[in-house]
């Protein structure tokens, strides 16, 4: 039978791994959101410049 300390360490390691995985997903979503916002702003800028040139 495993010791209680060993089980608690295993639970802490699993929680740490889950927290790291969630952080990686959040950072990826954040970067993707920023890229989409930049693309929209760039498109809006091109449209505004094209309208000014007409």
State which percent range the strand residues make up: under 5%
Major sheet attributes = none
Task: Output mean pLDDT.
Answer: 92
Sequence of secondary-structure elements: H
Structural class: mainly alpha
> What's the N-to-C terminus distance?
80 Å
- Number of helical segments with 4 or more residues: 1
- Provide the helix percentage: over 70%
Protein traits:
54 residues, 93% helix
Describe the protein.
By secondary structure, the chain is mostly helical. It has a domain of 33 residues. The protein contains one helix and no strands. The relative contact order is 0.07. The mean pLDDT is 92.
Brief digest:
It is built from one helix and no strands. It is mainly alpha-helical and 54 residues long. It has a domain of 33 residues.
